[in-house]
Give the backbone structure.
Amino acid sequence: MRKILNEILPGPIDVVGDMEIALEAAFGDGPGVIVVAGTGSIAYGRNQHGQTARAGGWGFAVGDEGSAHWIGREAVRALLRAADQHVSAGLDTTPFALSLLKAWGVTSILDLARAGNAVPPPDFAALFPAVVSNDDELAKEVLTRAGRELARIAALITRRLFSMSEAECVPVATTGSVFRYAPVVRQIFYNELRSLDARVQVDQRIVDPVEGALRMARRAAKASDIK
């Protein structure tokens, strides 16, 4: 990435992860925890001593709980389990099932299962809009679990970086399409995280990581001018 950018941009290039620019956008150089939930998910934080830590973000195959990919995969799993249990006659004609089928361009639950097991794996994140737009109980259950999973990884970082004796308040911010477009996930996340760590103060706005990248670029440019 650095080599490609050097060919089209003058000046020094610094390539960093999205969690770093998101943290910068939320808190500048101050302490706090950012929770990212887009196609993937991760929690990343920095305390008052400048120490950093991360949790989650291990990839869609083994982690990324609460992400759009995870939500899509869990939605398919929930629908297939319901089919196994014969929860509802004509399950593949419910609005929830039909929206998932349409998102992948298939016509039956059996085809949905085949698509979900395909190699290479399908785009589970593409199912996220269908899950979010549904009032079905299965969809709500998946989104509720997503909020709890994201709160869990956030709490791991708040406890690891901010000791009870040093911090009475721990600022937390969020970013990513899951938080932006899924009110159920946001609400469950807020409530669950507060129950796990009562010191947490969650910023209600959804952070735009681009702001952090711009700040870091301006700071680097200013430092370069000084030199």
